Amino acid sequence: MASVREPPNEQAVLNIYEAMRSELSQIYSNITDLEMQVSEHSLVINAIQPLDQSRKCFRMVGGVLVERTVREVLPAVQRNKEGLEEVVRKLYETLEKKKKDMTEFEAKYQIRLRKQDDPNKEEGDKKKEGNAQGVLVGAAAAAAASSSQ
């Protein structure tokens, strides 16, 4: 962890840990979005590559649809795809570093997630009861949705 100061209390440790988890979640989300864009770029490249290079081709630039030729658009789409792949690669590197930092933080402050607790504890029994209640709510919502059709 880059911070040299120790958190003053248990709540501060939990706040830092939740912030770390949130940051990991955001990185995963960004990676997913960018990988989808890379996939879309690949589809476009595969679709226009075999076409006549002088054929009309339309491209969205800053929210405006512009007319170009395949010869002009193909290299730009390929460059964009390569740039996206580079960003995804860097995000994966960042993700690994953050996961390592989080694991070290968990070890240092002996943090365990509740789902990893011993199921024989009373809290585990209460949690199971809470999960069952969540299922009932979900089933009631599904039944209400189907009856309104």
From TrEMBL:
Q: Lineage from the top down?
A: Eukaryota, Viridiplantae, Streptophyta, Embryophyta, Tracheophyta
Xref: CDD domains: Prefoldin_2
Return one GO MF term: unfolded protein binding
Question: Which chain positions lie within coiled-coil regions?
Answer: 81-108
Instruction: Indicate, by first and last residue, each region the UniProt record lists as having compositional bias (Basic and acidic residues).
Output: 111-130
Give GO terms for biological process: protein folding; response to cold
Q: Which organism is it from?
A: Brassica campestris
Family to which the UniProt record says this protein belongs: Belongs to the prefoldin subunit beta family.
What Gene Ontology terms describe where this protein resides (cellular component)?
A: prefoldin complex
Q: What protein does this entry describe?
A: Prefoldin subunit 2
